[in-house]
Amino acid sequence: MRSSRTRAGRRTALLAVLGLTGGLLLTAPQPASAANLIKNPGFETAGTDDMPYCWKKSGWGDNDVTFETVADAHSGGKAMKVTLTRRVDGDRKALITESAECAPVVTPGKQYDLGLWYKSTTPDTSVTLFRHDPTAGWQYWTDLKTLEMAGGWTEATVRTPEVPAGTDRIAWGVSVYGTGSVTTDDYTMDQVADPVPDPVCTGTAEECANGRWDVLPTKNPVRSMHSVVLRNGKVLLIAGSGNSEQMFAAGTFTSAVYDPQNGTYKQITTPKDMFCAGHVQLDDGRVLVMSGNKGYPSADGTIGYQGYKDSYVFDPVTETYSKTNDMNDGHWYPSATILGNGDVISFGGLKEDSTGSVTAELWSDAEQKWLELWKVNQTWSYWGLYPSMILMQDGRLFYSGSHTFGNNIPGTGSAIYDYDANTITQVPGLRNKDERDQSASVLLPPAQDQKVLIIGGGNIDSNPDANRLTDVIDLKQPNPSYVAGPPLPQGTVDLGAGKVPQTGNQGKMYVSAVLLPDGKVLETGGALHNRADPVYESSLYDPATGTFDPVAADPEERGYHSSAFLLPDGRVMTTGDNPGNGSWNHDVSIYTPPYLLKGERPAITSVIDTEWTYGDTQRITVDRPIAKAELIRPAAVTHSSDPNQRFVDLPLSVDGNNIDLNVTSNPNLAPPGWYMLFAVDANGVPSVAKWVHLQGPQALSATDASAHVHDFADNLEGKVTGPGKKRTSQKVGPTVSGCDRHYGSANVCVPTDFPPTVRATTKARCDWLKKNDYGRLKVNGKDDPLRLDRNRDGIACGKGDVTLRQLP
Fold it and tell me: Where does the signal peptide begin and end (predicted)?
């Protein structure tokens, strides 16, 4: 499951961003960089002469000095201590080694920000700089800053003057010229960015502030609730029977491939009812589709939905499906998470007999098949429907609490699953855990930060107003816990009589969340109640500030069975909506974020190699300066859920228009597969994406790079459970989808519990159904649990039903 199978092995792979992608990954001297230019900035990697790699003893004069690598570090396990016990004259310092291998490359005329953490027992210190002239060699440049005495770790920062002409490298350190000691750690050096010209608005003032939505003239030809962005930039839209009992009975199963370049759709032969299947992109770019709908509920509601065992692979080149071996269980609404070795793990969903599957399934990338049950670790736990299982940087899985239909799992509603140990540890802090039905959760940008955001949600069983809660968890903490995030902004809601402002704590379920190339998250769409009352609101969440910024709202209803996803050109596409009356919204919306209305966008003019390996340095060229670059995994989304969505930062080194990108060495941060590569300028304007293929073995271990190794979600205090008693399934009620099947057809959802504003009378319920366009509703069987057929003529909400004396 993990690239490191043991707990100790996991720890060695826990590299901070500098370790995963820092200077030691570069095989040759690099020019001025947008990332930290210091190699071995925390003294973690050993060198020669009893000094850390890329550091040397330096100084002059008559004095007595000791150089020590000590364990009293600001971060990691090492720091450098320089102590003068006697001084007549001169100074001593730990200095960056004055060599082409170690000394940072600089550009004449540029300035650099220097930083370090220190403790000092002497006032006689200075940050001292040396510069290298290709003709004259190394020479003293300047002293910049005196460090005040400090008993605890203190940060010091200073900006250099402009680099003199004829300088290609500098070296620096802290000089000690009085008796006492200075301990330093975590050095940084960053080039000061050139002033960024103000963006030029290319739309209206409103559009430039909040973006723009356009409804496309061509409608989506299929009732798709599954959307997968393929490695060629096209979009696979899977409907199966499209939640239509009539199409299911006729064997009409559909998919389409949408081409954003020309706005056309191609209908695809679809072999099985993939309605409410699971899907994930394999490392070669094909799409693994697992399970789907074997049967709709019976007319009287005594039998629920059934999931089949079949599985298929969709090839984006031939645009065809091919069958794989069967899964061990049926899984209607399964999870699907790709792992760092290319395997896929899946949990939850309903079996062929409508019970809940307790079987974990594992797709082997090496064998290209679902493994036999006895080869897969099992806890015999029921995770529910579409449980959001996010791969963590050490190979464990984080269940965020996002799921579909009804209540959450028992306990705290969130957990960490360790496949190797076969244990589940509950994680605290998730608020209103049983009102997270069709919430959205995402691994926030960048993936290296290991923070997860969960947004909104409701409960189709009790059908309260959907909430506006957001919670954030930092999985880098030794004992992580959700903490409250900012409340979701409110918009307008259509309760059947036109749009009105949301009030109180009204939020939304069926919410979509999309990672954007500028590092923000677009949340959009949703509804206030079970397949009813659409909410019109969109906003951008900024992980750097932890705030939401309301933007333009999608003009279309986007509730149940809607999807939102990022296109390679940086826009967002939204599809679908399937309210309880069984209708379908075939309109497609496109969101143009504000960053595409700020003027000319940068372009990636070439990618030297599109086949990338972990730990690589990859070169691209751009047409103008950029500030950052990242990989974004293409969407495979349904029902507010895409646990594989992630944004991986690529620290970069800049040489004019040539950009060297440092690729993470940890496949758990960026599982193998095809990614969209974006280059982003200082105004947050992204390029059009280029496609690159990331694969290969882990290139480096922690000992190969300067890294700040830290504990990672290790000292968990939550309740821990191991494998339970082997069982066949979990009993699940036939009304799991929140629909009372005593009325209408299988694709019509009369709610088992009406919204709280609807009184529990026949007239009030029938008025609500009429207002929401339910039309004629046949009663299935003799039971009438919602009292909609008072005159017992077999038709719910007929004229005679609402004129009879009402019961409470």
Answer: 1-34
The per-residue pLDDT for range 482-524, each reduced to its tens digit, is: 999 999 999 999 998 899 999 999 999 999 999 999 999 999 9
pLDDT tens for 245-304 read 999 999 999 999 999 999 999 999 999 999 999 999 999 999 999 999 999 998 777 889
Amino acid identity, position 619: R
Ramachandran sector of residue 615 (left: φ over 0; alpha: ψ -120 to 50; beta: rest): left
Domain(s) of CATH 2.120.10.80: residues in the chain: 222-385
Domain 604-698 = CATH 2.60.40.10: yes
Q: How far apart are CA 350 and CA 356, in angstroms?
A: 4
Domain 55-191 has CATH 3.40.50.2020: no
Instruction: Decide if domain 222-385 falls under CATH 2.120.10.80.
Output: yes
Greatest CA separation found in the chain?
109
How many C-alpha atoms does 628 have within 13 Å on its Cβ side? 16
DSSP state of 624: S
**Secondary structure (DSSP) of 389-448:** EEEPTTS-EEE-S-BBSS---STTS-EEEETTTTEEEE----TTGGG-BT-EEEEPSSGG
Render the burial of 142-160: b for 16+ CB within 10 Å, e for the rest.
eebeebeebeebeebeeeb
In 3-state terms, what secondary structure has residue 307?
A: strand
**744 contacts 774 by C-beta, under 8 angstroms:** yes
Contacts of 516 (CB under 8 A, 6+ apart): 522, 540, 566, 570, 572, 593, 595
Strands 611-613 and 690-695: what pairing? Answer: parallel
d(CA 364, CA 370): 6
- For the chain, residues classed under CATH 2.60.40.10 are 604-698
Interior angle at CA 487, CA 486 and CA 493, nearest 5:
155
Alpha carbon distances (Å) from 116 to 38, 41, 145, 184, 266: 11, 9, 12, 7, 57
